[in-house]
Amino acid sequence: MSELRIGEFARRVGVPASSLRAWERRYGLLSPARSVGGFRLYGEADAERVTAMLGGMQRGLSAAEAAAAAMAMAGAPTGAAGGPGARSGKAPSLPAARAQLADAISRYDEAAVHTVLDEVLAAFGLEIFLTELVLPTLSQIGAGRQEERAIGHEHFASNLVRARLLALARFWGRGGGPLALLACVSGEQHDISLIAFGLLLRTYGWRIVFLGADTPASTVRQAIVATRPTVTVLNAFAASLLESQGSALRQLAQETPLLLSGPGSTEAVARQLGLRRLDGDLPRAARELAEMPWPAPATP
Fold it and tell me: For a tag on the chain, would you pick the N or C end, based on fewer CB atoms within 10 A?
């Protein structure tokens, strides 16, 4: 890899530039050179440390532990100014982070929102970031949407978070792993939890094709025919959406292993439609899906 500026480097390693800056500042993970114009330039050694750190976090290490392990693997000194030993390594409090995030959202402060997201993602890794910060905060805001001002907060937060998660999802369709096709059923507008599920599934080596919100069954079928996914996951928050589309969903299940997800996919609804459902706990659902013995998909 030739030396790259941070934007292109972030695209190559699949980590947002904001997270890379946080890891460099907090842990000393990266050692960029400087161009004649003073721009940071990142090379192969930096990419190797980022890859090692991501691997450590996927194994359950905190960001500080993963950074230290990545530095040790690379033979880089720790404890130098700016390195892992320069801080206590104490992670920020999640309750405090949730309060800070809610406050930033209430003030429509985009920079403050991203700061909290950066810090928690760097300190705790993807799973905690999603399940203990992002989704609970959005759920709390959504619960108060009967107040007019809360509707603005929900829209502001949802748009920021959705864009942030899709940035983390960049290139999640690459690789050679099994393929999951993810979509919300027709009429369902909420897709952030489905994006979060795809990100967690990606940590198990799966590839993702994401169709997003309000996807007609005919569109899902076209994607199934084109991609022949290992599994298709359809999300709905309202059980009535699944019940009203039962015939179309059963037809899709004849063409692909089909799973239902979201609060609308209750056991009663799944039993009524004769379809399988995923556990509502996203990390457990991703793990169970990854461990299922799926048959090899047919060639398109």
Answer: C
| pLDDT for the residue 27 | 81
Measuring CA to CA, which residue among 199, 198, 264 is closest to residue 232?
Answer: 198
Structure confidence at residue 297 as a pLDDT band (50, 70, 90): low
Of the CATH numbers 3.80.30.20, 3.40.50.280, 3.90.1170.50, 2.40.128.120, which one belongs to the domain with range 179-291?
Answer: 3.40.50.280
Task: Extract the tokens encoding 119.
Answer: 């810090």
Joined together, the tokens standing for residue 195 give 């994006």
Predicted pLDDT of residue 16:
82
> What is the pLDDT at residue 87?
37
- Reply yes or no on whether the pLDDT at 144 is more than 80: no
Q: What is the C-alpha to C-alpha distance for residues 33 and 39, in angstroms, rounded to an integer?
A: 8
pLDDT higher than threshold 80 for residue 150:
no
What is the pLDDT at residue 69?
79
As annotated, the residues of the chain forming the CATH 3.40.50.280 domain(s) are 179-291
| 185 neighbors 241 (Cβ within 8 angstroms) | yes
- DSSP state for residue 4 in the 8-state scheme: B
* Region of residue 108 (left: phi > 0; alpha: psi -120 to 50; beta: else): left
Alpha carbons within 13 angstroms on the beta-carbon side of residue 33 total 10
Give CA–CA dist 143/88, Å, rounded: 37
At the top level of CATH, the class of 6-79 is mainly alpha
Smallest Cα–Cα separation from 121: which of 76, 169, 62? 62
Of residues 60 and 280, the one with the higher pLDDT is 280
